[in-house]
Predict the 3D structure of the following.
Amino acid sequence: MINLDRLWNQLKGRSELNGRAAEPALEEGQGLVEYALILLLVAIVVIAILTLLGPQLGEMFSAVTKGLS
């Protein structure tokens, strides 16, 4: 015989272990926030590197351009 309560709880996304409703939308949002924070950190590091090494890179490209001319 089918246990309708168990089926209903599974359809609602309830965990049998803790009885709380699972909230996949919040977990998905949490994952998006984590990826956004990682992307922000990478962007800050890239901007810092370009700020520190920008003049040196500019001189290097100028030297290459003059060498090709």
User: Anything to note?
Assistant: Residues 23-69 form one domain. The mean pLDDT is 80. The first helix runs from residue 4 to 11. The CA atoms of residues 36 and 42 lie 10 Å apart.
